[in-house]
Amino acid sequence: MKMNPRGMYAIYRFEIARAARTWLQSVVSPVVTTSLYFVVFGAAIGSRVEQVQGIPYGAFIVPGLIMLMLLTQSVTNASFGIFFPRFTGNIYEVLSAPVSYLEVVIGYVGAAATKSLILGLIILITAHLFVDLPIQHPFLMLFFLVLTAITFSLFGFIVGIWAQDFEQLQIVPLLLIIPLTFLGGTFYSLDVLPEFWQTVSLFNPVVYLVSGFRWSFFEVSDVPILVSLGMTFLFMLLCLALVWWIFRTGYRLKS
Amino acid sequence: MAPILTVKNLDKTYESGFQALKDINLNIEKGEIFALLGPNGAGKTTLISIICGIVNSTGGSVTVDGYDIVRDYRHTRSRIGLVPQELTRDAFETVWATVNFSRTLFGKPRDDAYLEKVLRDLSLWDKRNNQLRTLSGGMKRRLLIAKALSHEPSVLFLDEPTAGVDVELRQGMWETVEYLRETGVTVILTTHYIEEAELMADRIGVINQGEIILVENKRQLMKKLGQKQLVLQLREPLSSVPAGLAAYSLSLGDNGESLIYTYQTQSAQTGIDSLLQDLGEAGIRFTDLHTTQSSLEDIFLDLVNG
Ligand SMILES: Nc1ncnc2c1ncn2[C@@H]1O[C@H](COP(=O)(O)OP(=O)(O)O)[C@@H](O)[C@H]1O
Ligand SMILES: [Mg+2]
């Protein structure tokens, strides 16, 4: 046996089935939450702030909101996927199976990315119901979605291996991802900030995601699109390196 | 025939600096039932975990069917089924989904007929649509066995299969092991219940403080180290062993109602002849007598205490 695609697929399928089992929580709830954002922010604020960078406010916030959901869902999903078997003790099975680390990662991260990607698309379609939404570069937009879903699922996988209990598992999305997204230009353009905070924002990786993603819709952005792409890749490489290190050292998986 | 499992000079020192295994050497033959017997903390789980790929060794090597567990891990792991010591915590998937998952995770194509047979053999077929969290403790343990068997392993590890299991279920586990023997699977089980090793295994390895003290065919082990006891029911109770009989290893039982003589079955002279003669001369009469074989428990205590 050179490779074990069946084993990889078993993990993938198991994770997808988990979402199907809990579809209310994993599909309906994020869609409803995001729709509420559309309504509350888009309608309430949008009636006062007409346009940002020449885009109607209601439409302006859509890419950021999709990113917010994509990031939190990717991290939550991927981290839970690997944390739960660690918690139940079932991880022994994956560790003792003839699957390579790469296959394990592809199974778990692939499934999490698939799920958040599907969610992202559902929300994109939902957004069309609320606002008039042009997409200038649909392929780039999709590419960004896929790249972000994979990158943050990788990040979630790392969180799920690092976390020692459920509290730590929830801390990262709550105390890291959501603030970074809110401060990452989801609801505003960076040039409304004082210069100092603009500079600080450039250390926030989410800024590059939101900016690049928004550019694929409206061709307006806070940072050049290539910089956005570059930074996203950089973050993905960082996560990959960490995952590689985890398996090399057996960190929190093997003694 | 080449052994199916070979452990050579295996060492394990945990990161804490604790050495859990010291130079372990072991060969397991195809088709046998091998019991690894040792007290808590002896290193049984560590040894199994290394062979299965859950823990990294710090020295030595292990081969399964000629394949190295590190270099050829896909070969070795696909041949091994593991039933862990700890029951896993509750999960939400169904029995059927989980055995299917186990099978495909190990790279085997779906085979519903085979999985049905496994579930039926382990009396879990009726529960196939139940979520795991609805199963009782005994069923969970059997499900872990079903999961381990789902990919048709040739070697099965049962880590303390009856720990925390009540008497009735323990009986069931013994029957399960018997059933495994018939299917031709090599079974390596750990236990700290000596009766269990005695009951189920063909060969027994005794492990203590990370070292294998001995490996022996069960019968030979019993014979080699067996002590017997001769129990004499006394006509009149004694308050102490008469001084004249101090040369014999005697003790009183049943509040002095019986006299117990311990002797080595292997020694040329058991001393029974002369004991009976000396008893007669001392005027000690008895109404009945029988002998008992020492259990592995006693043997084990002897071994561990040097
Ligand atoms: N991850 C670990 N780190 C440090 N010591 C460990 C670890 N796991 C087990 N040990 C120690 O190794 C010894 C052997 O443990 P184990 O193999 O579980 O024994 P057994 O299964 O025979 O009861 C014990 O003293 C235990 O405390
Ligand atoms: Mg143990």
UniProtKB/TrEMBL annotation, chain A:
Molecular function terms from GO: ABC-type transporter activity
Location of the ABC transmembrane type-2 domain: 21-250
Recorded superkingdom: Bacteria
Any one annotated GO CC term: ATP-binding cassette (ABC) transporter complex
Sorted UniProt keywords: Cell membrane, Membrane, Transmembrane, Transmembrane helix, Transport
Compartment(s): Cell inner membrane; Membrane
PROSITE patterns in the record: ABC_TM2
Any Pfam family: ABC2_membrane
Record's bilayer topology term: Multi-pass membrane protein
Major place of residence: membrane
TM ranges: 23-45, 57-84, 104-127, 139-163, 169-188, 200-217, 223-247
PANTHER family per UniProt: INNER MEMBRANE TRANSPORT PERMEASE YADH-RELATED (PTHR43332), TRANSPORT PERMEASE PROTEIN (PTHR43332:SF1)
Family statement drawn from the similarity comment of this UniProt entry: Belongs to the ABC-2 integral membrane protein family.
Protein name: Transport permease protein
Automatic annotation (TrEMBL), chain B:
GO molecular function: ATP binding; ATP hydrolysis activity
UniProt superkingdom: Bacteria
PROSITE patterns: ABC_TRANSPORTER_1, ABC_TRANSPORTER_2
Residues of the ABC transporter domain: 5-234
Gene3D superfamilies per record: P-loop containing nucleotide triphosphate hydrolases
Signal peptide: none
Record InterPro entries: AAA+_ATPase, ABC_transporter-like_ATP-bd, ABC_transporter-like_CS, ABC_transporter_ATP-binding, P-loop_NTPase
Keyword annotations from UniProtKB, A to Z: ATP-binding, Nucleotide-binding, Transport
PANTHER family reported for this sequence: ABC TRANSPORTER ATP-BINDING PROTEIN
Entry protein name: ABC-2 type transport system ATP-binding protein
UniProt source species: Halospina denitrificans
Lineage summary: Bacteria, Pseudomonadati, Pseudomonadota, Gammaproteobacteria, Halospina
